[in-house]
Design brief:
Blueprint lengths: L1 E10 L2 E11 L4 E5 L6 H8 L6 E6 L2 E2 L5 H5 L2 E4 L11 H6 L14 H13 L15 H14 L4 E5 L7 H18 L2 E5 L3 H7 L2 E6 L2 E6 L1 H4 L2 H8 L3 E4 L6 E4 L19
Parallel strand pairs: 3-8, 3-9, 6-7, 7-8
Antiparallel strand pairs: 1-2, 1-4, 4-5, 9-10, 11-12
Helix pairs in contact: 4-5
This protein binds adenosine-5'-diphosphate (ADP) and magnesium ion (MG).
C-alpha cells in the first residue's frame, strides 16, 4: 500500500529525514514515534505531498512522482499537526473541502459530495456543529472536524500527525477508537505520529522510532517500547509494564525519593 525506500527530506540544506525504508501494508496501522525534532512531522508532510523528497514513495505500487496532485489526493488524506483554519468557515463547508479531489473541472460539489459530507459528520457525531464556525468549537471538537475533513476525502491512506495532542484522555481515546473502527470497517491504512508512547503502543500494529531523521528501531510495540531503547533515544528513565493492548510506558524519576516523600516523617507515622 505505502512503500518508502531511502526516503529523504532536506530543508534549507539540512537533512531532516534520512534514508527511511518503510512498508505499510493495506489495513495496517503504523505509528512513528521519536523525540521532539526527530523529523516525524516532516516525514508525514513529505509523504502527504507537502514537501519535496528524494528516494522512493509508492502508493499502491504507483510512484508518487508519477501521480498528478488530484490522483495523489484520491490516495492520501492527511491531518496536519496544526491545520490552518480558514477564518469564519462553517464546519460543514470545511469538511466539504475534503471532497475537492472528487469534484469535477468546475469544482462544483455534487449531490454525492454533499451526502458523503453529511454522512461523515454524522459518523463523528458532529452534525450539531455543521453550521457553527470552527473558531467557536472546543479543541476536541475541532480535532474531530479535522479528522472529518480527511475522512470525507475517502482516500485509502490516512496520515495523522499527533491527532490527539490537543485532547484530554477521554477525547483522546474516543478519537483513536474511532480511527481504529474506521480502519476495520473501511480497510483504511493509517500512518500516524504520536507523542504519548503508551498510547502509541496501544493503537499501532507496528512502531517506527525516528531519531535525528533516521529509523533507529522498528517492530511491534513490544519490540520497540523497551526501557533500554526509550532510555537511549529519549534520554528518559521509564518503566515498561505489559498491558492488554501493548506495553505501558511510565516515566520513572531516577534516584531514590528524598525528604518528606520517603514516608518516614515522624509526624506522619502510625
Ligand atoms: P518532529 O515532528 O519529530 O518533532 P519535525 O519534523 O517537526 O520534528 O522537525 C524536525 C527537524 O526539522 C527539527 O529540528 C526542525 O527544527 C527542523 N525543521 C523543520 N522545518 C524546518 C524548516 N522549514 N527549516 C529548517 N528546519 C526545519
Ligand atoms: Mg511534529
Amino acid at each position: 500500500m505505502l512503500r518508502l525506500g531511502q526516503f529523504t527530506v532536506d530543508i534549507d540544506g539540512h537533512r531532516i529525514v534520512d534514508g527511511v525504508d518503510l512498508v505499510v501494508p493495506a489495513g495496517e496501522w503504523v505509528t512513528v514515534i521519536g523525540p521532539n525534532g526527530a523529523g516525524k512531522s516532516t516525514l508525514l508532510r513529505a509523504v502527504g505531498g507537502e514537501l519535496p523528497f528524494t528516494g522512493v514513495l509508492e502508493l499502491d505500487g504507483v510512484r508518487a512522482h508519477d501521480l498528478r496532485r488530484r490522483d495523489r489526493a484520491l490516495r492520501v488524506a492527511s491531518v496536519a499537526q496544526n491545520p490552518v483554519v480558514p477564518a469564519g468557515m462553517a464546519v460543514f463547508d470545511y469538511v466539504l473541502l475534503g471532497r475537492t479531489p472528487h469534484m469535477g473541472f468546475l469544482g462544483r460539489e455534487s449531490t454525492a459530495d454533499l451526502a458523503v459530507t453529511t454522512e461523515v459528520l454524522t459518523r463523528l457525531d458532529l452534525e450539531r456543529f455543521a453550521r457553527r464556525t470552527l473558531a467557536t468549537l472546543s479543541g476536541g471538537e475541532r480535532q474531530r472536524v479535522f479528522l472529518a475533513r480527511a475522512l470525507a476525502q475517502e482516500a485509502p491512506l490516512l496520515l495523522l500527525d499527533e491527532p490527539t495532542s490537543a485532547l484530554d484522555i477521554g477525547h483522546q481515546q474516543e478519537v483513536l477508537e474511532l480511527v481504529d473502527e474506521l480502519r476495520r470497517a473501511d480497510g483504511l491504512t493509517v500512518l500516524a505520529t504520536m507523542h504519548d508512547l503508551a498510547v502509541a503502543g496501544e493503537y499501532a500494529d507496528r512502531l517506527v522510532l525516528l531519531d535525528g531523521g533516521r529509523t533507529v528501531a522498528a517492530g511491534t510495540p513490544a519490540e520497540v517500547l523497551t526501557e533500554e531503547i526509550i532510555g537511549r533515544h529519549y534520554r528518559a528513565t521509564v518503566r515498561v509494564f505489559p498491558g492488554a493492548h501493548g506495553p505501558l510506558v511510565v516515566p520513572a524519576r531516577p534516584g531514590p525519593r528524598s525528604g518528606l516523600d520517603q514516608g518516614n516523617h515522624p509526624n506522619l507515622g502510625p
